[in-house]
Design brief:
With 361 residues, this protein is mainly α. It has 2 domains: 16-177, no CATH class; 197-317. It has helices at 10-25, 28-40, 46-59, 65-75, 77-110, 115-137, 143-151, 157-196, 202-205, 212-232, 238-256, 270-296, 300-317, 326-354.
Amino acid sequence: MPRPRFPRWLPLVLVAVTATTVAYFLPLLDWIAAAQIRIETFGVWSPILYVVLYILFTLALIPGSALTFTAGLLYGAGRGTAISLSASTIAAVIAFLVARYFFREPLARRFAGSPRFQALDRAVAGDAWKIVVLMRLSPAFPYVLLNYAFGLTRVRLTTFTFFSLVGMIPATLLLTTAAAALGEAADRARQELAEAGTRAPSVLTENGPANAESVRAGISWLRNRQLMLWRDAETQELPSQQEIANLTEGLIRRVGIGEATAPAREGESAGEAQERTLAALKDAAHEARSAIRYFADGRPGTARDRQKRAAERFSEARGDASKINWGLWSAIGASLLVSVAVGRAAQKALASATGPAAAPA
């Protein structure tokens, strides 16, 4: 009786579903937030602690993309990219050595009859640099798993190290640049808040008619205050977050009854402006309340994610035009196209390097 044949993409789907399920139940964002706070307290020594944490996360098979993003937020695009690449390369080498000198023999015996494992082993023996680079560039091959997988093959350590570094540059640069851009926006918000004062404007605290410009200024204060809380990672910020939620809900009531005029975009009617502003403010209030709940539950990472969402909704509420960062989106689009092309190239390279043995059983 012939064995049932499963689709070739089924293992990838199972891995993705498992990783998503684990990420949902494990407080990964909270771990990263706690790590970020601890890193910042070390001052000039923080890069060293960052590297140590990156190594621990990698050995534990926890994806390093969130820590890479943190590098851009803490150190900026240029320095963050350099520090993150150093950390990811060192972590990859350690995982590689662990697999090679502690697990290679037992696992090699375990997979001795596996055509796929034998195919990969022969492929890296023939075109090691090409296989390493292509797999590093393709998101279809997870970083944390590849470190261990290559350790089980015959690829040389120097080849693995150098070409892993080369292959990780594009994704690292993209993540750190995006994080640095968000950090700069938060820094600008802090400056604007310092100019406006830390005390909430009267449009948020007093009743009575308010024109559109006053309402826009009040929403800007809420947005800047929210961004500042998100960026600064204060440990005792629950009262400030509570204030943002309360003031937002008060403004929702006043805009809803027409006491405060919603700021309109160009070409937008008063009714449309009110509808858009109310919807965005309600979303912002919901995210602010969610942040409070997660802070109370001891989940600061998830709370900060809600804070960032609230700040984005405040920007929508005050009538900001949707700005398209063509540079960032072009980079993202190009990376997706490259990833697809590289993924196909990696499969072809494996097939050509290994011959019939690479075919599925």
